[in-house]
Amino acid sequence: MNSMEGYMDPYVIEFDDFNNSDDGSGVEDYEELCESAHNNDFKKIFLPIVYGIIFVLGIVGNGLVIIVMGYQKKMSNMTDKYRLHLSVADMLFVLSLPFWAVDVASSWYFGRFLCVAVHMIYTVNLYSSVLILAFISLDRYLAVVKATNSLSTRKLLAERIIYLGVWLPAALLTVPDMVFARAQERGSRIVCERIYPQEGNVIWMAVFRFQNILVGFVLPGLVIFTCYCIIISRLSQGPKGQTLKRRALKTTVILIICFFICWLPYCIGILLDTLSELNVIHSCTLMQGLQIWIPISEVLAYFHCCLNPILYAFLGVKFKKSARSTLNSRSSQKFLTKKRGPISSVSTESESSSVLSS
Hints:
By secondary structure, this protein is mainly alpha-helical. It has a single domain, classed as Rhopdopsin 7-helix transmembrane proteins. It is 70% helix and 4% strand. The protein has a two-stranded antiparallel ribbon. The longest helix is centred in the middle third of the chain and has 37 residues. It is found in: Cell membrane; Early endosome; Late endosome; Lysosome. It holds the Pfam family 7tm_1.
């Protein structure tokens, strides 16, 4: 993955080296004055190892969530439906990591078709993840603030609109990957990256970066932030009986916080890098710092695909017990037929006793 010698944009894959001549001669001339040593040996050893760890954790964790929740006959818990979608998206992403690990360590050996396909998988995962988190926040808002008359709306969002509001936009946003991603020789190796038209390619790069930061992070982030501010305000004014709601929100709130902790540093780094590419910011110290900051924050960002199942395992007592029973059962389907109730990481949600029931 050429992003290890360059850097990937958040929410859309972009593989441009800081010193990539495809990025425009004006920026290149400036960057030549800001040369710094790249520790490529460190990247070739460290990053494939980290990718391997994320791959194993992601496959095991998300696979367990998909098995336990996917075989459930009746998932009436709305949050669990969203998290099933989230686990599917994360599973798709971790399946692409072995390709990038090989690319970092050596070269791209997999041809143009897989180059485009892996780019598209990356893009779909990143967009769908943040959009699903926005849907979860909206669902929690409806459950708490509009509890008495929101069930039909929540079901519609979880069962129908999620495909139009999450998966369709995420799929459409892979069009630039289909158009620009390709495998090509560069020096002694083959790289898989987006290649924009030579004329004005810095502008192409900047437009896609700003578009994807806005659509894939800022706008969904505003939805998430607004919904949870309203929820916190409502719960802080409620009676003691709403302790159930606070407990039911704990796992979802932690998921949201972890997402921003993982992705915000990377987005800030990419934003500063883009401004530097456009010559809005002129700082050799900043450019040298970004060459260290972006790869490290990129690894942190990738780790978010493992957090969802980890949070389930440590915070969801019922989910942990159900997962153990499912794996130990000779017939998962027979077991889940007997256990008709929702398997939820939030054990306080109940159809009969809580407005958070789904």
